[in-house]
Amino acid sequence: MILAIIVFLIILGLLIFSHELGHFLMAKKMGVRVDEFAIFFPPKLYSFKKGETKYSINLIPLGGYVKIYGEDGEHKKNKRSFSAKSISQRASMLVSGVAMNFVLAVFLLTILAFITDPWYNGFYMGLIYAVKLLVMVIKIFGLIIWQLITQGKMIGDVMGPVGIAIFTDKIVASGFSNILYFTALLSVNLCFINLLPLPALDGGRLLFLAIEKIKGKPVNEKIEKYTHTVGLVFLIFLMVLVTWRDIMRLF
User: 11 in a domain, yes or no?
Assistant: First the structure.
């Protein structure tokens, strides 16, 4: 089980790192200042500063973040601020995180394809596998929503961090190929979930950009910030609920 926990943390760290790296690289490409690049949530375990950016490794393995200058709508007159960029530039910075998760999935599945298929089919099969995984995740999400609407409950297979960590133990025992596939599945899942138009997620921020595009002016900063805060509280509550269900399954 100790090995499974280590593998789980490595997988989680890889998923978070790739996602935040996407945001980080695109922000740098757009000339936006990045104040902090963090893996996991505080309290802080280790950090160092290089240039204008602080790089941190934190304790709580439930996510990560890239602190981008002006991301909450402030400093609009500063050309290095997120809010000073065009709608398309801001959208590209938001989408880059989920794009990197999909790229990671393709990369992992390409490695898997090299193991199971002729080498010359590797990248093509990796891309095909990733697309199939994405379609599967969308279908499962649709089933979850349908069951919530019709029966008022989630299907039993929904897992939080605890459930995934426990399941990782079985994956580790089944071999390296399954670890690659499992990691790719989680990466595609993270890609899809972050694109949902929910406050606090990348998809929610993209929705506000779409509204800005339609209206011709940004949504009130306070309203957007409050909406994302409420969304974050809801997501934390949902995470706690799913984690509690995971724990109850142990008894």
Answer: yes
Terminal CA-CA length for the chain: 17
pTM of structure: 0.87
DSSP string, 98-113: HHHHHHHHHHHHHHHH
Residue 182 lies in domain: 2-34+87-248
Q: Which residues of 167-192 are buried (b: 16+ CB within 10 A; e: fewer)?
A: ebbebbeeeeeebbbbbbbbbbbbbb
What is residue 60's three-state secondary structure? strand
What are the tens digits of pLDDT across the range 184-205? Answer: 999 999 999 999 999 889 999 9
Please tell me the total number of residues recorded for the chain in this structure: 251
The tally of domains found in the chain comes to 1
**Phi-psi sector, 38: left (phi>0), alpha (psi -120 to 50), beta:** beta
d(CA 92, CA 30) in angstroms, rounded, equals: 9
Residue pair 52/34 in contact by the 8 Å Cβ criterion: yes
Beta strands in 84-217, from DSSP E residues, in sequence order = none
CA–CA distance, 40 with 17 (Å, rounded to integer):
9
Q: What is residue 45's three-state secondary structure?
A: strand
Six-digit token string for 16: 């978070």
